Amino acid sequence: MTPPPRRTLLLAAGAALAVPALAAPALLRPALAQGLAPTPSMRGGANNYLPGAAIVPRIGQGGFWLTGTVRRAGDGAPVPRARIQIWAHTTEGHERDPHSHGATLTDAEGAFRMEMPQIVPAFGQAHGHLAYDSAHDENGYETVFLRPLLRSARDTSLTAHFVLRRA
Amino acid sequence: MTAARAALVWAGLALALGVPLAVAATSPLLAWREPIYIAAGLAGVVGLGLLLVQPLLAAGLLPGLRMRPSRRLHAVVGAALVVAVVAHVAGLWVTSPPDVVDALLFRSPTPFSAWGVVAMWAVFGAALLALLRPRLRLLLFRLCHVTLAVVVVVGTVVHAWLVDGTMGTVSKAVLCLLVLAAAAWAVREARLPAALRRLLRRE
User: Fold this and answer.
1) Choosing among A123, A130, A146, which should be mutated to test the B contact, i.e. which has the most B CBs within 10 A?
2) Which domains are present in chain B?
3) How far apart are CA B97 and CA A11, in angstroms?
4) Which stretch of A8-22, A123-137, B176-190 has the lowest confidence by average pLDDT?
5) CATH assignment at residue A118
């Protein structure tokens, strides 16, 4: 049997690749095609997570602000009343301490603001943890864990944004 | 070497080890850490300090110490280094298990973790080789032990440098540079290319 000419093989491979490429936009259109991609969970984001932290006006004595927004993938519409859980190593406790954890809800514009104790460097980096956990929220989006870094350990605020995908 | 110069070398070594440790032991970060976490961090600082002593002992570069007692001390300090590494990792594990598991599995978000874990395994490897040394050909032992030691030094220095922890920036930088210089000097004294040539000729 003679092998098929190389060009034929390449054309066949090209066609095989083209079919899913043409089909993909139709599948992705509802959520992604209009632009805003969902935020992926960050490495280590879920470390020391204690599910279902209580909604609190602030964590501990405060003095540090963790702010951000929650929007939905695709059209970027704000997600109100999304439950965001927050924890960090601060001047008042380790990440694993229950009193280092708290939750808050986004407002009508999808924004959240949590006052908490000053975040201090731990495990080599000054960082915070945020969770949108589908198990503790009724908006119906997929779970995302974030682990943003402070630009400087002297910063007194930190911002983190969620773009969520429908579960 | 005159007695005055020898005293200067020993005083310099004591400062190079003592100052970074003193700075770390008085870091403001300690106020917000549990004792076990503080101990884990200091064990890391001690380990970095021992890495300055190790090449100097291995190459017999410290004044007043003949080669034989110098090498014996090298083995003792090597054992202490293993203890420091184990204390460092175990203390961090108790403080935050998931962060240490991530580091050991090379999936940590922090870039310094992998350097530290590689250095840890190289420390264990170098120590194991030292235990097996009576059964190994001397040239082969030296080649492997020194290679692992270079991995330990480079891995540890990068690890320590990238960590935002209790060490002071200046004292950490000075100690890291001294560790690199001492290691480079000892590697040169080990004359590895000659050892490799002799080993290959005998094959």
Assistant:
1) A123
2) 18-202 (1.20.120)
3) 52
4) A8-22
5) 2.60.130.10
Whole-angstrom distance, CA of residue A143 vs CA of residue A164: 8
What interface predicted TM-score (ipTM) does this complex get?
Answer: 0.89
Q: Please indicate whether, in this complex, the C-beta atoms of A124 and B165 are within 8 angstroms of each other.
A: yes
Residue A12 inside a domain? The answer is yes
Same domain? For A85 and A156 the reply is yes
DSSP codes joined into one string, A39-58: PPPPTTTTTT--TTPPB-SB
**Cα gap A61→A63, rounded to integer Å:** 7
Tens digit of each residue's pLDDT (9 = 90 or more) over A138-153: 999 999 999 999 999 9
Measured distance CA(B154)–CA(B179) in Å, rounded: 9
Residue A70 covered by a domain:
yes
Q: Is the pLDDT assigned to residue A32 strictly greater than 90? A: no
Residues A85 and A143 grouped into a single domain = yes
> Residue A128 belongs to what domain range?
64-164
**Total domain count for chain A?**
2
Tell me whether residues B110 and A44 touch, CB distance under 8 A.
yes
pLDDT higher than 60, residue A25: no
Which of A25-29, B58-62, B93-97 bottoms out in mean pLDDT, i.e. has the lowest?
Answer: A25-29
Q: Which residues contact B1 (CB under 8 A, 6 or more apart)?
A: B9, B63
Torsional class of A10: left (φ above 0), alpha (ψ -120 to 50), beta (otherwise): alpha
Q: Are residues A74 and A13 in the same domain?
A: no
Of the partner residues B98, B163, B164, the one whose CB lies closest to the CB of residue A48: B98
Q: What is the dihedral of CA B154, B159, B161, B163, to 10 degrees?
A: 180
DSSP A103: E
Cβ-based contacts of A125 with chain B (< 8 Å): 110, 164
